[in-house]
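Hi R.,

Here are the chain sequences for the assembly we discussed:
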Amino acid sequence: MNPTLVDALADVVGGDQVIVEGESAVRYLTEWRGAFTPQAAAIVRPADVDEVARILTVAARFDAAIVPQSGNTGTVGGSAADDPRRQVILNLERLDRIREVDADNATMTVEAGCTLADAQRAAEAAGFYLPIQLASSERCRIGGNLATNAGGLNVVHYGNTRDRVLGLEVVLADGRVWDNLTGLRKDNSGYDLNDLFVGSEGTLGIMTAAVLELADPPQQRAVAFCALADVAAGVSLAARLRRRTGQHVVGCELISAQALELACDYSADCVVPFATRADWYLLVDVAISAPGDWLAATCEDTLQDAAEEGLLVDHVLGKTPETMAALWRLRTSIPPAQTAAGASIKHDISLPVSKLPAFIADMTPRLHAAVPDIRPCIFGHVGDGNLHFNLTRPVAMEDAEFRRHEADLHRLVHDRVAAMRGSIAAEHGVGRLKVDEIVRLKPAVEIDMLRAVKAALDPHNRLNPGAVVRI
Amino acid sequence: MNPTLVDALADVVGGDQVIVEGESAVRYLTEWRGAFTPQAAAIVRPADVDEVARILTVAARFDAAIVPQSGNTGTVGGSAADDPRRQVILNLERLDRIREVDADNATMTVEAGCTLADAQRAAEAAGFYLPIQLASSERCRIGGNLATNAGGLNVVHYGNTRDRVLGLEVVLADGRVWDNLTGLRKDNSGYDLNDLFVGSEGTLGIMTAAVLELADPPQQRAVAFCALADVAAGVSLAARLRRRTGQHVVGCELISAQALELACDYSADCVVPFATRADWYLLVDVAISAPGDWLAATCEDTLQDAAEEGLLVDHVLGKTPETMAALWRLRTSIPPAQTAAGASIKHDISLPVSKLPAFIADMTPRLHAAVPDIRPCIFGHVGDGNLHFNLTRPVAMEDAEFRRHEADLHRLVHDRVAAMRGSIAAEHGVGRLKVDEIVRLKPAVEIDMLRAVKAALDPHNRLNPGAVVRI
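And here is the predicted structure of the full complex:
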């Protein structure tokens, strides 16, 4: 603790918005996965962008570092401050306004501390749909969604968070504010700084607000659940549905038999809607804002054709809200079921969609060779090539014993992903968790570029030091 | 000319691929709009990425600068070298291969020297559609499309070129190659370097190849041409069509009466399909890869509703290839008609869609006050907020006299765009043409960031110096 730093921060935000220790500090210093034990000189809670800017000026004066935090729901330690002498957690919760909905531009301007769910509700109230869909929507906040370029359940159609951003407000390391809340769909008047800040995890600037592009609310929707012939059949089926629906597959989740079994064992609400069993299943959500009644019929035709060709061995198509929700539960129950099933070693990987079948076929025997009776609980967003390649401990093994395999299993999976030109940080970011692994696996030329960009925008390493890339 | 530099370049590519002067140099040193008179120490034509890398090494050794060029069809002097002592034009035409089409990933890997039309044909041959649609497709090349983040006629649905890019191969200033041809749809393992290079106009690295995401070929299509009540009605109609078609407006062009009149006077192939006349017209192209017959009917219903509400005063809906082509000619004939009508002073601007009506209403009297009888020949991509705000000389004024108003008219238009938070370089880039104007109009904090990024990746100012931003 540094009393003069704390005093200077209190001058900016008021004494009650600077937290140094005690019970009120706990939630800002808790990393929910338990992988980090955050420590900070203080937590500061500004009310608006001007206060954020002044905090950065104070940080410069005291050579303090700023670790931005919004919902603190990340999975890679991106806001887990780790230096109690120099680092200050800058919590953005109080910047929680919807500044504007511009209906004719189909955009909304939202502050970083707004929860995703509040932003979604504001969009809905204005007759739109904000298509960032995360399980944590009531707790995660826009600032974190932007900082991690959050993915989620509907990237296959709507893209990542970055694809929604039509402008930013950013406080730079030196305390200056870049107000680029323009809402432009075309702007080639310089380098793409918006896209550079999005996904930079608070290491290049503090994003305090964004203009997000809105979509129109779906008017037709259906959800298919299919038992597949194999993984390749799932890839092929997803592509057919994409093409036949006019690119309106909005969710496309691959589920392994093991993952489905865990979910059904875990929750009485999870019931596979047919007796057929397979090694792999596919859940496909199709939706479009065009009114009409053709979408479900097109989907059913496509599934019938695929069944005749042997791509799938059984399927149902849900058309009511209740059946669609029941089918989605088969997927959304997997993460809590997995938590309940004992220790898991997780990987957030992506590959070109075309390489997923080979990757899975290649990895499966290696995993069983490394840890006999390991339970690969694999599921994820196959439409965009992103799998949660999660490995659950054998039924008969203690958590602690399984954890001893963690480094080896990470290396086994990551090395293969890297060899196939995939990403080991597909949608959750790098944070503090994967900094060293990125350096190990990326070519030196890329690490050099990341460092050069970091040094260019944060020359004194004042913004979230230790995350993404070290300089 | 520097004989040792030229010799070293010839060592890399062979003597016949280094051009120093004479007739064979002309086309590389011609800027087709006539705004620049390019000069270079040499033109060098590498065959592959290794030769590009070695050329950069040679440039470092001789402290030469590299101006990349592919199709040389740009409009802002981006490849117009301007230093005959230091600058070498690196022409990429010979890197013209389609390296791969990955059907299961819906991507293609294309080299920078490939023409856009050749890339489109390769996509089509593989059953896909490459949705970058530019008038110059047979002459422009992928490298330039990437370097300028080219826009074009279908950005409203498919996005800019940047939105197509799932990976790049880039030669850096120091001659190292960054091979990031991954084809990933999700990758948060570092800053978004892909998006940083795209649109950087050759000033941060030389893009030699890209992985482009492909779309599915349209199966339903229709083209509407409407006489509007006013500009605001056009904005509203475009939004309704977007929503009712499920976001399948793929082209959305606003056309002023003056622009339409020029086109019809210029070409006998341009015939307005109804007798009604209005101040503003809207051309809307709708398309979707889903088979069926609902799209045109939905479009017609929406137009009928809009007519009853007074948004439009007349319309036709073309459904055959011939009628759709005839309607598009009303738009595509405008640029040549404008060229034939005498000198024009052009602006490539964008605004939030919601602000376009106010901008046009505000500017029109100012233009007439500045130059009585000026002919504002305004058209463009209203769906994404981008207008070609082009001003043609009065009928009775000489070109040279009109040109004397150029600086004043640029300032009049650009100042208003800047005041409304728009872009003065929406889809054509900055090049050498708008470097000073960008500095004049952007906040200092943004120019400082552009310079910092440039200096980080090109510390010796070796890549296209003088374009985009000066350091």
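Chain A has a mean pLDDT of 97. Chain A has four domains: 3-91, 98-213, 220-333, 342-428.

Let me know if anything looks off.

Best,
T.
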